[in-house]
Amino acid sequence: MVILGISAYYHDSAACIVREGVVVAAAQEERFTRVKHDSSFPLNAIKFCAEYAGVSPQEICYVVFFEKPLLKFDRIFETYLAFAPRGWKSFARSLPVWVKDKLFQKASILDGLSAAFLGDYDWGGKLLFSEHHLSHAASAFYPSPFNRAAVLTLDGVGEWATGSVAIGLGSQLEIIKEMKFPHSLGLLYSAFTYYLGFKVNSGEYKVMGLAPYGDPKYTDLIESHLVRVFADGSFSLDMSFFDFATDLKMTNNKFDNLFGNCKREPEGELTQKHMDLAASIQKVTEKIVLTIANSVAYETGETNLCLAGGVALNCVANGVLERESAFENIWIQPAAGDAGGAVGAALAVWYQHLGNNRSSPAAVDAMMGSYLGPSFTNDEVRNALDGVGARYRKLSGSEMIGEVAKYLAGGQAIGWMQGRMEFGPRSLGARSILADPRSCSMQKQLNLKVKYRESFRPFAPSVLKERVNEWFEYSGSSPYMLKVARVQSRKIRPMTDSESALFGIDKLNVVRSDIPAVTHVDYSARIQTVHEETNPRYHALISRFYELTGCPVLVNTSFNVRGEPIVCSPTDAFKCFMGTDLDVLVIEDFVLLKADQPANLQKSYENLYELD
Q1: Are the C-beta atoms of 308 and 151 separated by less than 8 Å?
Q2: Do 130 and 65 contact (CB within 8 A), yes or no?
Q3: Helices (H), strands (E): how many in the chain?
Q4: Scanning 83, 144, 207, 565, which has its CA 20 to 30 A from the CA of 596?
């Protein structure tokens, strides 16, 4: 029994193949098209999943789309009617697009399937449509290590729902409560993302990273004017401050006036007030999420919690839940955003539509470390490198591990591409940029010379699972980089009086711990625990680095530059390597040094990303 799951047409389109209830392959379309957050039909992702699984169209029993387009159109139409005449111009502009492209998505999906499989095929009754929040909930519960759990989904909006609570028991999953549009925690956070000059559905994690530089002095203003929170965590937004229901922008003049007319334009200067606003909305978000979770625990009596939806990517809030909520155990879908809806929709068909029983959950989870994308053989890597004129050395696996560990200990920045690509927004040691976390200058160097992004952005530590509690105030598992914990107090360096008096971005250059490159200004870190079972080669590299340095931690950031998706192929990796100040590139058993590359080749990649 083979099921193809698809998410598309909003952001982060993706596809997955589930065979007999097992997630075999999954990938986002952006990795193939090189268009960040690509929303188009996942033609290339479908091709990859089918080829990896070795299935033909005839062998695919069901194709399931992750939401119901007609219900979404119903929500948009009713919203415009409810707010009329406000927003009429926006509605008049969007209606033809909906009628042409969105309302008849079944035909678009069938056309896309024909293109993906290079020919017409009668899909007959095989095409199904899930519901947005059911897809999210299924993606969180069915791969989780729990036989029973409460499932909390929070995002911008699906068809009508902006949040939902479900109960999972064995193969059964039932949504028991929903919050409806326009009252949305995801859209509230996105409104501040927009107001702070970052891109909606892309820059929310920048707001989260900026928050520790500020003081949450506007929380009372937010709670007294923008959002009313009730005892059970449900809330309502005062829509007079927002335009997202009826226009193409998130906030309006009333919102701007509330905060003293300080809206930041994209790429504009970041002031202390912007940092304080980021800190404030982050604090309000944490409070709402924690209140909802504790209410769910009380109402359901469940001790396990599963999370999905875009808000579940807020790893700071997840850390608060793990430390302070009434739940004993928490598991978060690594592709918590819309991409993961493809997985959830397929699993919902397997368990709910087809009525299959769920076997005992896996000890960790059933996402295979999220290593579900393409991989490349040494022969394929060699052909790609020869094709671009690269100079390289091929080593044995153990030789490669030893040499790369020495480069890292020597302060080199490494592009690291190994095995199957990650599914979801995080690089987890398959498509990563790696560096020494002990370096005082590494965060700034990587941000400005490799990633070409804002200097305030923190980097995450990858740490050996068996050593995590020695370096962080955390003893559990965080394989998907979705939980935040504090650096261990014995690893923290006390600040001087002058350092303690610093404000805003000036805090950035203070050395706060023995691993400053991964210690945020509030002494927190977004932890990835590395497990030998799911990524033995990455585990071996960190272990060798530990032998050399006494530090079982590496800087791990996504292998890409700002504005581009994470690399997928050897050619993508080589381009990023040559176009940035990375020192070393490692693809499978091949090691490339920047200094060894031909001068004419280096010249051709100069200023590649600066010009973009």
Answers
A1: yes
A2: yes
A3: 22, 21
A4: 565
Overall domain count for the chain: 3
Tell which wins on pLDDT, 325 or 244: 325
557 neighbors 438 (Cβ within 8 angstroms)? no
Q: Are 39 and 11 in contact (CB under 8 A)?
A: yes
CB 286 within 8 Å of CB 230: no
Point out which residues pair with 2 in neighbouring strands: 19, 60
CA-based nearest residue to 556, from 456, 419, 413: 413
Q: Quickly list H helices, 472-535.
A: 497-500
- Spatial separation of the C-alpha atoms in residues 54 and 26, rounded to whole Å: 14
Element spanning 399, H or E: helix 397-409
Q: What is the DSSP letter of 509?
A: G
Asked if residues 218 and 280 have their Cβ atoms less than 8 Å apart, the reply is yes
CB count within 10 Å of CB 196 equals 23
Q: Which of 377, 479, 472 is nearest to 429 (CA)?
A: 479
Please provide the DSSP assignment of 519-548 as one string. Answer: --TTSEEEEEEE-TTT-HHHHHHHHHHHHH
Q: Are 339 and 14 in contact (CB under 8 A)?
A: yes
Q: pTM for this structure?
A: 0.94
Residue 343 sits in a domain whose CATH number is 3.30.420.40
Between strands 22-28 and 14-19, the pairing is antiparallel
Within-domain flag for 167: no
Which DSSP string corresponds to 559-593? SS-TTSPPP-SHHHHHHHHHHS---EEEETTEEEE
The residue assigned the tokens 């995590």 is 468
The confidence score (pLDDT) of residue 611 equals: 42
Is residue 230 a contact partner of residue 244, using CB atoms and an 8 Å limit? no
What tokens appear for 549 in the block?
């340095």
**340 and 390 share one domain:** no
Residues 404 and 350 in one domain: no
pLDDT tens-place string over residues 43-66: 999 999 999 999 999 999 999 999
The amino acid occupying position 243 is D
- Across all residues in the chain, what is the average pLDDT? 92
CATH code for the domain of 521 = 3.90.870.20
By residue range, what is the domain housing residue 360? 2-145+334-370
Q: pLDDT tens across 176-205, in order?
A: 999 999 999 999 999 999 999 999 988 999
Q: How confident is the model at residue 481 (pLDDT cuts 50, 70, 90)?
A: very high
Residues 222-264 pLDDT 10s: 999 999 999 888 899 999 999 988 877 899 999 999 999 999 9
Partnered with residue 166 across adjacent β-strands are 151, 175
* Chain centre distance of CA 400: 30
State how far the Cα of 483 lies from the Cα of 316, in Å rounded to an integer: 6
Identify whether residues 363 and 444 lie together within a single domain: no
Q: Which two tokens stand for residue 111?
A: 């056309």
Q: Is residue 158 part of a domain?
A: no
